[in-house]
Amino acid sequence: MLTVSRLQSPGWWPTKGDAARDSYAGTATCARCHASKVATQQQHAMARTGVRAAAADILRQHDHLSFRFGPYREQIITKAGKSVLSVTASGAAPLSIDLRWAFGAGRMGQTYVYEKNGSYYESHLTFFAVSQDLNITPGQSPLTPRNLEDAAGRRMPPAESRACFGCHTTASITNNQLDGNRAVPGITCEACHGPGASHVVAMNSAQPDQAATLIMNPARLDPVASVDFCGACHRTWQDVVTNFGLVDANVRFAPYRLENSKCWTKPDARLTCVACHDPHQPLDHDPAAYDSRCLACHVNQPGAKTTAAARISDQLPPDHPGAACPVSTKNCTTCHMPRIVSPLQNSTFTDHWISKPAR
Predict the structure, then answer these.
(1) Are 236 and 275 in a shared domain?
(2) 101 φ, ψ to 5°?
(3) Are 33 and 101 found together in one domain?
(4) Residues 141, 236: one domain?
(5) 356 assigned to some structural domain
(6) HSE (side-chain half, CA atoms, 13 Å) at 177
(7) Where does the chain have alpha helices with state H?
(8) Are residues 29 and 87 in the same domain?
(9) Are residues 244 and 324 in the same domain?
(10) I want to staple 38 with a disulfide (CB 3.0 to 4.6 A). Which of 31, 147, 275, 356 is the partner?
(11) Side-chain half-sphere exposure of 255, counting CA atoms within 13 A
């Protein structure tokens, strides 16, 4: 489904903003019962995908960034706990803007957001990890800006501002109003599980059965909804095919790519996002860490029979419907999920459209 359709349905869904601010309990409260999960989740990149500019490690480590674009010199200078974007050009008065937010954990890049006249603006420049320097923000015009204001960044429409804050922070949208000043940095427990204050009250009242109905547990979702759940921020299949503007860069949208994969089939759709990625644990970049997931569905010896025919005859999903790889049973993702360079993003992404490599 389109994410916008999910958001219009009853119940919690990521980026939904109809709850009241006092319905959020806060991460510290969640940690009273879920200390280990909170501790490891805070090491996940999602927990750092939106921070206030003053707390951005990248800006502290690169306290003087500079980029020249036509007649404009753009700089981001960080000192005394403040990051300032300045734009200068010959014959014009310099423009200086305090950056408010840094979006992106920085493993691939980080884009900056500032506020002016009640609107949010996306910086014209993004820091890219591959170059360790600034370059044009993906989606912004590569043409020479018309003036200093355009060189600094572009105004984001309200709906886009909501989407950015909704996917990079927690509780930034309450009562259907965006309030970036009160946003909780990063993706924390309640960004996915929904506001937890009522759940906490029920648990404290020794009503666990009622408490379970007052919090979102994504583990209960069917496979399609599970992938759409992550797709609320990472783009569902429908989000991509409906928005033609995303097509050229769709390698970055893992749910869309995954659902095009032959591995993501029915009635056995075990290969959801969480089959390989635990959102409470930091992302594992070692290819060997994913072999066990592949071999949970694929037989591990050439010539071995799959269980598909026998299990389907019993109207049960097959445990191992996939044939063995004729090459190896190790480091599966290095061949079947290659890293693809996206020039539009100045970054490299793991392709989740799982396929057989050309031989």
Answers:
(1) yes
(2) -130, 150
(3) no
(4) no
(5) no
(6) 6
(7) 3-8, 27-31, 35-41, 57-61, 148-152, 158-168, 189-193, 197-204, 208-212, 223-234, 237-242, 254-260, 273-276, 291-295, 308-313, 333-336
(8) no
(9) yes
(10) 31
(11) 23
Structural domain span for residue 35: 3-49+163-216
38 and 171 inside one domain = yes
Residue 355 included in any domain:
no
Tokens of residue 301, six digits: 């010896």
Note whether 38 and 183 are same-domain residues. yes
Put simply, whether the predicted model's pTM sits higher than 0.90 gets the answer yes
Q: Which long-range contacts (CB under 8 A, 24 or more apart) does 171-180 make?
A: 171/21, 171/24, 171/195, 172/17, 173/15, 173/17, 174/17, 174/19, 174/20, 174/21, 174/24, 175/17, 175/18, 175/19, 175/20, 175/21, 176/17, 176/18, 177/17, 178/17, 180/100, 180/101, 180/115, 180/120
